[in-house]
Structure to design on (124 residues):
């Protein structure tokens, strides 16, 4: 079955960078979209960035210019490059994917059937 495994989280000082990776199964049905979400303590999960199979991407408005989503099909990895990190970026970061057509917001949890376990990012 489809599995997503995140890695790359950790603790970093404000202004630093981290690169998160999400390993996915090479034999899964083609993903129409993949995304990164995050959830800070006491807050709802929110969309960070999403990448479509046609290469188009969207970002949370507050993160544009600092975060970059990309996919490496040779390594079966969805990556999230995070630069100029701020304490408010502290959260559990989740990778998600789905192969179904979807008409609503790509930052809606319901748009993704498969989720990873998450990787913690702490910015101090």
């Amino acid at each position: 079955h489809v599995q997503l495994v995140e890695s790359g989280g950790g603790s970093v000082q404000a202004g630093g960078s981290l690169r998160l990776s999400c390993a996915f199964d090479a034999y899964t049905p083609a993903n129409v979209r993949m995304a990164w979400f995050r959830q800070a303590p006491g807050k709802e999960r929110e969309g960070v960035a999403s990448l479509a199979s046609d290469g188009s991407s969207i970002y949370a408005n507050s993160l544009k210019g600092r975060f970059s989503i990309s996919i490496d099909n040779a390594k079966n990895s969805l990556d999230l490059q995070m630069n100029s990190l701020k304490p408010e970026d502290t959260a559990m970061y989740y990778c998600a994917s789905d192969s179904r057509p979807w008409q609503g917001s790509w930052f809606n949890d319901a748009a993704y059937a498969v989720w990873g376990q998450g990787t913690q990012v702490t910015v101090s």
Q: What stands out?
A: The two ends are 37 Å apart (CA to CA). The chain has no helices and eleven strands. The mean pLDDT is 92. The first strand starts at residue 4 and ends at 7.
